[in-house]
Amino acid sequence: MPQRKTASKTEVAGRTIAVGDVHGCATALATVLEMIQPQAGDTIVALGDVVDRGPDSHGAIEQLLVLRERCHLVCIMGNHEQMLLDAVDGHMPVQEWLYHGGAETLDSYGHGKGVDAIDADHLAFMRTWVDVYETPGEFFAHGNYWATRALDRQPWRDLRWQSLKWHTPGPHRSGKTAVLGHSSNKQGRIVNLGHLVCIDTYCCGGEWLTALEPSTGHVWQARETGESREDIVPAVQATA
Q1: What is the pTM of this model?
Q2: Which structural domain range is residue 37 located in?
């Protein structure tokens, strides 16, 4: 059974910026990081689902390995990283993972070699990813959460798998703003409920990869085509 892992930052030095679901869109990721220009004191939080569906999961993971030498990098475990690791470890049929976007991932590593083509250092890196990251004002997770449970008592299955389309939680008992991915908005829009912001804006479907600095509301976005723009987080909405 997967083990839930958490991390936190009690003092904020530099910017804290979340990056939504990359899904193998390495060009969009490179464009967003070029716009952000991360510095040594910054924290970049990748919200999970870096792999699968898009054209270059290998390249996306490579960028994160380089990025962690440049700034403080936190990576959240998404359901797609879990599926990849489960397929590699024999806990899931490889064909099931391939059906859910793993085929594109293996193509980026060298499909003919199967799961053995995935770089050992990439697998080791993904195994270090956490389920929740906390700052004084926010918490970051991939999928969803229980509003009434402490963050270190959240079910890993909900954190990684549950969509906001199935359940939209209320404000968390901690009073912190939730910053999430996973629940893709097919129109490429950020969902802002005030107590919760979802920044999966469907990059792998031709829309945007979104990065958000929660403390300022500043938004950086890029498409896999290389198109980019900057904005501020939209006004609070009534529903997801």
Answers
A1: 0.94
A2: 6-232
